[in-house]
Amino acid sequence: MSSITLPKFGSAAGSTFSRELRANVENYFRESNISKFANKALKFKAAVLLVTFFGAYLAILFSGLPIWTLFFFAVLMGLAKAGIGMGLMHDANHGSWSKNKTVNKIFGMTADMLGVSSSNWINQHNKLHHTYTNIYEHDEDVDGKGLFRFTKDAPRKKLHKFQHIYWALFYGFLTLGWFFADFTKYKEYRKRGLNKAQGKEVLREFGTIILFKIMYLTYMILLPIVFLDLPLWQALIGLLTVEFTAGWILAVIFSLAHVVDKFDLSNHDKFSGTTDDEWTVHQIKNTFDFAVKNKVLTWYCGGLNFQVIHHLFPNISHAHYPKLYEIVKETARKHGVNYQEFLTFREALASHVTFLRKLGNPQLA
To answer: Which residue(s) pair with 278 in the sheet?
Structure first.
């Protein structure tokens, strides 16, 4: 990334906030005498999600049910795929699932098994999104690829006037976009210095991406055609159903944490991304919790509704977010840092749609 001028954050050297925050969190684990990694409940959840995904897949192949009923199994696979991504793959690729790096690597590769390169995901999510949260042209999660305007720093197009309407359709294509973008993204991340692989290692990594893509297409399209004697178009509908369900859920969960109307996110310079805020404060100003009291949502989305805590402590498993919530919130209050959250999922979703409407309409933004 040497050719790119990176945003700079204010110094935390003279601040007691970051030091006290980390000390309070460390004290919690020390006094509770518990691991920062996944607990038994999370491991059980991971097993449930994996069994659901592959169980629904096997039911499609071997249940002998009428073809129209298989649509519901495809939806179930999509629900499970999103859950695996949020509740297992996400923790593993942050290194918070297990203290064993090999275990994290294995479970992190559930992304590859489900059609998305885990190495690209780590570069995009861990290195860019988590470091430069909501800073346009550095955080790819707020790059709408021209179809959406997710930040005031992005240029506005005429079609954005309707983005608060068409989001409900296009969010469903998120994971399909990842599937096809992996090839160009690998090259891009190497050019930017995020991936320093050289020589044979490049061939091995790129070959791994291709191999898992072929594997995914084989079990998602070829095997249903062979075992069920389906025409190609029906197998494609099944694949699209799985991907649309998973993509829509993942896109919405992300959006409610970072692209909302409740607060002004522009605490940084539009052109350089530089901010006077120290990194910890920047994360809190640009991240939102939502519906943290909803235990079902917390279970399913891997604690990503505790997004503030996740951004501050990505190397801690989401099993501990509910316990850390009050610790982080109280420490922020003590130091005059505004901890941002929505009480309900509905409130967060309404704020997201409102923000899309304002960003797309020059008379409202």
So the answer is: 10
